[in-house]
Structure formats: structure tokens, C-alpha cells
Amino acid sequence: MKVSARNLLKGKVKKIVFGAVNAEVTIEIAPGVEVTSIITKSSAENLGIKEGSDAYALIKASDVMVAID
Amino acid sequence: MKVSARNLLKGKVKKIVFGAVNAEVTIEIAPGVEVTSIITKSSAENLGIKEGSDAYALIKASDVMVAID
Amino acid sequence: MKVSARNLLKGKVKKIVFGAVNAEVTIEIAPGVEVTSIITKSSAENLGIKEGSDAYALIKASDVMVAID
Amino acid sequence: MKVSARNLLKGKVKKIVFGAVNAEVTIEIAPGVEVTSIITKSSAENLGIKEGSDAYALIKASDVMVAID
Amino acid sequence: MKVSARNLLKGKVKKIVFGAVNAEVTIEIAPGVEVTSIITKSSAENLGIKEGSDAYALIKASDVMVAID
Amino acid sequence: MKVSARNLLKGKVKKIVFGAVNAEVTIEIAPGVEVTSIITKSSAENLGIKEGSDAYALIKASDVMVAID
User: Fold this and answer.
1) Could you tell me if E22 lies within 8 Å of chain D, comparing CB atoms?
2) Above pLDDT 90, what percent of chain A?
3) Does any domain span residue F1?
4) What helix, strand, coil percent values describe chain D, rounded to 5?
């Protein structure tokens, strides 16, 4: 499948924390650079990801804000 | 200012394309890893960013999806 | 690729309207039921979709609101 | 009330699962076509929806991605 | 219609700027407090709003971030 | 830090309800006008906010819908 979302950042799952409904998935996309995602627990289970799995963070361009110091 | 959004990825603005209303801002957050953002043109102007500026990509964890091959 | 977003609605592209930056894509997901999407023009071009193409509308569960009359 | 969101998909509530804070609401919008929504538990209670209720899935066009096989 | 989104802020349309595809709508929700919205031009036209119209800003709780100085 | 999101509404935290993973933060942005936010519990803790704290509600313009009666 190919998706319209512009940002597809390849990495490895570093940590998954399961809540009752949601799961917090941390993906390391470059050495020392991590992206945290909250998805439903059932989505995480369907994907079959675990720590060390290859995974992508997928983000729509319109959901990325820009900030400066 | 400190913001609740979980992902604050530091980088440098690599490219800005201005449309009539929106601007597409590409930030390099690690060597060879880029994040593309669409913000309003007036926001980009208010921030005063240009190619080469230090900038952050700021993303809520609930806006990050996870994908696998 | 397999994505964490919960709603993957299969259909056919019924209409695409290109703007300067964005494209408005209408997908018929059941007879008489259409979903309208706004994605960047370059995303639409990368996907190579045109009227009549098979396509999916992909939506995160947290982006779906519920309404009643 | 009339809302600017472009996609208003009429259907029937097929399932509601209540968590501590959130509720997962599944709406059947065409025979065999379901949309899953996550809203706060208090919103679900305020709407007074239950299985079998008429309801709409309401989605902004900019929250709909497009995917192809 | 009653919608699950938690924040329904009543006010008056103060300004509408139409682009080719989108419209920027500014609603004054309290004296001196304004909320800016970007919706599609066709949504703005369908709502029939103009400067001075009564209108609501409608926002999902999960789309509101919190910041501090 | 300065952020591209268009709506930065100054107020005071009126209530925080902590769940297992999320926190619901209510900010009064004008007398009698409240905005409710759902952020992760760890974000709320990192910000160090409590009832009575000065805080901002920060919202992207593209996440604000418009509604009329």
C-alpha cells in the first residue's frame, strides 16, 4: 500500500507502552532522534510490532508545526 | 514557551515553498532525514524562517501513525 | 505497507480537482456514499490516481467525530 | 447546527466500547462498511447514543488520506 | 445536529478571507479574543457566513495543545 | 519558543483530570469561556501545570471547524 501522507520516517521500535485502550510507541528514526506515537492498542497488536521491529512513523504534512527558539 | 506536543525535532530549514495561502517548509532533522510541514504563509512569515534557519518540527503524538512493510 | 490508522475504506476515485498546492479527491466507498479528501497536489501525483482508479480513504479513528440529529 | 466539515456519513451505531476516558464507537455507514471513531466517554454519554442509534460519522476533508494498493 | 467535539465556542464572524481553495475565517469568541479557522471555500459558502454572522468555532479536545511561558 | 500554530489563547487552568494515560485540562480563556484539551499525562506533568496556573490553549487553524445554528 502507498499512502498520501508526506512524511514516512523509517526506524526501529524502541519502546512500546500498552495502556487499556492506547499504546505509546517510540520509534528511533536516526541515532538519538526519536518520534513518539499514540495509536490504539488494537492497532499496535494488528501490526505485530515489538521492541526492535522495523517500523515507520507516518505523518501528514499538515500535522507538522514549525517552531523556533 | 513550552508546549505539550511530545515530538520536538530540532533541525535546519532546507526549503520553503510559498503558495498563495500556505507554505511548505522542509526541515532536515538528521543527516538525510527530512520532515515536511504545511503551515499558513503568514505563520511562516511571522516566524521569520528562511533556508538555513534553525527550526523545530513540532508534532503531537496522536498525529503520528505507525506503519510496517 | 500496513498502517495503524483504523479506517481503510475501499472505493473508486470519482473526481479529482487540482488547485495550486492541494488536490481535492472524492472517493465513492459504497453506492452513493462518497468521502472527500484534501491532500497535497504532489501526493496525488505521486499516487498516480485518476478518475476511476481503485483507491482507499484512510482515516485515523481519533479524527472521526460522531454527530446526531 | 450545520458544520463546515465536509464528510457527514449517515449510519447506525453498531458497537460502543467504553474505556475509562474514551469510547470507541463503530458506525455502519453502508451495508458491510463501518467507520470507527474514538471520542471522549463524556461526549458519547452527552450524545446519548447506544447500539442501534442513528448517527453520523463527521470527518474533515483534511483528515482523510488517500492510499492505493 | 449535535456533535461529539468538546469545544463549541460561540461568537461572531469578524473576517473572512477567500483563497482559491480555502477560506480563513476569524471568529471573535469574547471581547478581544479571536479564533482563526481554515476551512474549504465551498464549506464557507455552504454555511452562508459573512462578516457579522453568528457562528461557532468547533474544536476537538484532542486538537488543543497546552503551552506555558 | 515561537510556534506556527495560529491560535494562542491565554488563560488560567481551571481543572485537570488525570486518567491512566491522558489528562483532560480545562483552561478558562475569558470570563465564562472555557477550552478543554486532552494531552498525555506525562505532557501535563512535564509542563508542571496545576489548577490556577497561567497557560495557553494552542490550536492550529486547520483544526478549527466553523458551525452555525
Assistant:
1) no
2) 83
3) no
4) 15, 60, 25
Give the number of other CB atoms < 10 A from CB of residue C31. 7
Q: Which residues in chain E have their CB less than 8 angstroms from residue B62's CB?
A: 62
- Name the residue in chain A with its Cα closest to that of F4: A66
Number of domains in chain A: 1
Judge whether E67 lies within some domain: no
Q: Is residue D40 part of a domain?
A: yes
Confirm or reject contact between D40 and chain F (CB < 8 A): yes
Q: Which residues, given as ranges, of chain E have pLDDT below 70?
A: none
- pLDDT at site E40: 87
pLDDT tens-digit profile of F13-45? Answer: 999 998 777 889 999 999 999 999 999 888 999
What residues of B are in contact with residue A56 (Cβ under 8 Å)? 66-68
Give D5-38 pLDDT, tens digit per residue. 999 999 999 999 987 778 899 999 999 999 999 9
In the prediction, which pLDDT does D55 show? Answer: 98
- What is the domain extent for residue E14? 7-58
Average pLDDT score, chain F: 94
C-alpha cell at A1: 500500500
**Which residues from chain D sit within 8 angstroms of residue A7, using beta carbons?**
none
> Which CATH number is E40's domain given?
2.40.50.100
- Residue of B2, B4, B7, B21 to mutate for E, most E C-beta atoms under 10 A: B21
Cβ of residue B69 closer than 8 Å to a chain A Cβ: yes
- At A18, the pLDDT band (50, 70, 90 cuts) reads confident
Residues 6 or more apart whose Cβ sits within 8 Å of residue C32: none
CB contact under 8 A, C56 and A6: no
A36 found inside a domain: yes
Average pLDDT over residues A46-54: 97
For residue C40, the chain B residues in CB contact (below 8 A) are 24, 38
CA angle A25, E58, A59 (to 5 degrees): 30
The pLDDT confidence band at residue C25, using thresholds 50, 70 and 90, is very high
Distance from CA of B3 to the nearest CA of E (A): 4
**Residue C56, SS3 per DSSP:** strand
Residue D42 is inside which H or E element, if any?
helix D41-47
Residues of chain F neighbouring B43 (CB-CB closer than 8 A)? 4-6
* B6/A36 touch (CB, cutoff 8 Å), yes or no: yes
Measured between alpha carbons, how far is C28 from C14 in angstroms, rounded to an integer?
Answer: 6
